[in-house]
Amino acid sequence: MTNLERTPVWDKTFPQSDKVEHSKAVFHNRYGIELAADVYKPKGTHGRLAAIAVSGPFGAVKEQASGLYAQTLAERGFLTLAFDPSFTGESGGSPRAVASPDINTEDFSAAVDYLANRSDVYPDAIGIVGICGFGGMALNAATNDPRIKATVASTMYNMSRVSANGYFDADDSPEKRNATRAALAKQRTEDYANGDYARTGGVVDPVPDDAPQFVKDYHAYYKTPRGYHARSVNSNDGWNMTSALSFMNMPLLSYIDEIESPALLVHGEKAHSLYFSKSAYEALEHGVNPSNKKLLIVPGANHTDLYDNLDKIPFDAIEQFFEKNL
């Protein structure tokens, strides 16, 4: 549990709070992968606290948005854990920059394993926050793990849907999916021959003038001092190209209508990705316990505003949600 190399200095994309104690942690998932994390704890607290594990966005590291969420929620009284998913950041796993609907869902449950065994956490008062693509993973984890007592999915992506159908479902046809499968199968052969895994290239840089606005928004976060981080997949070479195969073949969110615990979906009114949360909420409100599910649409906010814009992220509502349900 001490094999991971962890940066000893504060290298976050946000300033350190003087209201919070910060420490580092390592825990493992049930596949034996060690995960690196930051623990944030309100200063001056004693005894047990409700706890929240945070991860995302998809392609980010704990020094970016998830750390900001974790630190802010710690300022509001929770013990929080921001972690790097398997195969990324300071966490273990090889090859690097691989995403998996199963393993990344498991990462959230592994965080619950760790938190439930801390002496300063109430084991029956643990929630999770997933941002962007890890919002989908968080809902997936809440479906499968009743120890998760409350879930927030912020500016959520359904990575299975976008991998299989393209943006806005523009490529939703067997023919286009089969073409993608053929291209990625060919890539697998080439990767094996090369002894390495080709990457997607990360967020496009420079951005063409005719690029969609959401691509420009991603660039403004991942490729500028606002959000760039040297260990972030999106800030650099991107994901392993063949990661999309597992998301296409093993869909996320198949059973989210069976989530019994409370869930809050937060999304920007102007976000290109809003349709993911709307569809997920439709499943939740027709599920086994619709009364404790809510969709909160933030006026005027785009997708990346909910990464780090403290004027847009509705932390008051998120705090109230966790106070009520933890």
UniProtKB/TrEMBL annotation:
It comes from Bifidobacterium pseudolongum. Keywords: Hydrolase. This is Alpha/beta hydrolase. The keyword Cytoplasm does not apply. Coiled coil: none annotated. GO terms for molecular function: hydrolase activity. PANTHER family: SUPERFAMILY HYDROLASE, PUTATIVE (AFU_ORTHOLOGUE AFUA_2G16580)-RELATED (PTHR47751). InterPro entries: AB_hydrolase_fold (IPR029058), Polyketide_trans_af380 (IPR051411), Xaa-Pro-like_dom (IPR000383). Pfam families: Peptidase_S15 (PF02129). Residues 32-300 form the Xaa-Pro dipeptidyl-peptidase-like domain.
